[in-house]
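Reproducibility note. Readers wishing to regenerate the assembly model reported in the main text can use the exact inputs given here. Chain order matters: entities are listed in the order in which they were concatenated for prediction.
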Amino acid sequence: MDQPQPAPGSPGSPEAGAAADSESRDKTPRTERGRRTLRKLLDAAAVEFGERGFHDASISAITRRAGTALGSFYTYFDSKEEIFQALVRHMSELLRDHVTPEVQAAPDEISAEHIGLLSFLGFVREHKEIYRIIDEAEFVDYASYRRHYETTVERMRQRLEAGAARGEIRADASEVHAWAIAGMNVFLGMRYGLWDETADIGEVARIANDMLANGLGKRD
Amino acid sequence: MDQPQPAPGSPGSPEAGAAADSESRDKTPRTERGRRTLRKLLDAAAVEFGERGFHDASISAITRRAGTALGSFYTYFDSKEEIFQALVRHMSELLRDHVTPEVQAAPDEISAEHIGLLSFLGFVREHKEIYRIIDEAEFVDYASYRRHYETTVERMRQRLEAGAARGEIRADASEVHAWAIAGMNVFLGMRYGLWDETADIGEVARIANDMLANGLGKRD
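Running the prediction on these inputs yields the following structure tokens for the assembly.
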């Protein structure tokens, strides 16, 4: 994966260049049944890569776990690298789809960050494999790894910007704040979502959000 | 590395049990020359693992980079896994030794966190391989990976506790705050230290520390 396929629409993607080449044949399923098979393959890949890691994982084990024929795999993917890359994007989107509706229902930006962290911690408890999969992308497909964080943080940055425009948080909230909050959430998820099954994630989110809202300064 | 060697003095370490076994023969260099050779091997390992990753790295390439004989390697390490494990601990200690004196010179706890982040961002710029090495430990030697973060965060927690006792920060500062700050620093280091060579790390540290000190709340 020295040459990871760029995101659709990104600079250097097939659409952006003149040559829509045969390598990037459209493998998007066109039927409901196809979409179900693809989803089964991705769910099976999450278990296989999550349990065994990229190097020990195999395509035949993925199709066995998915209960699909080997041929179905090659309908959608050309290689283990390709399904891994699709899985990183899939996990990133699953996380987004889990967190976003809850965050959007928040009454203000500080509450949105509170709900966002709590929702993320809940997601980690249900999908413990997310750390191993996203983190292994650093070694298997760096472009996917970086894209996951860049897209996630960009959503947070836009949220902060909108909150600042509404006067709910400090006016100078910026990209630096968004990366700081993302790192905070990822580490709290590792420590209290992944490593400690019994931690009270509601209490963790409350403490972290209070620090985010008010800082470390002394309280009277 | 399913059975990583425990830290000296930790529960389960040879000293803690009755059987000081032959497997854990003491390979600590006893001479200045030996210490220099060991350090050369670790420095070479940082470059080799940092550039090629664990799987593609080789012992012969490490000794070639270090300018030492292959026999010297086996004086100190039994395997590629063992030098990798030693390297993770070495990087963790290098980072600690870089940051700690600067942090200890700070006039108060909020300033200490500011200096700690700035010092960390400077370290990342000088040792870009630290991300790849620590992060790959998640897959090569999970115990080392977890120990790196646990010992780093424990130092931060103690610092917060002492700052709270001195009345410099909120009295309820806890382990959750320490993990949150650690995550913030690691992500800012990745984004602005590793990915962006031109970012003004002084400005990044200033923004992050101001958020840490005062929170996201509106300023008048």
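We highlight two features of this model. Chain B touches chain A through 51 residues (CB under 8 Å). The CA atoms of residues 42 and 85 of chain B lie 10 Å apart.
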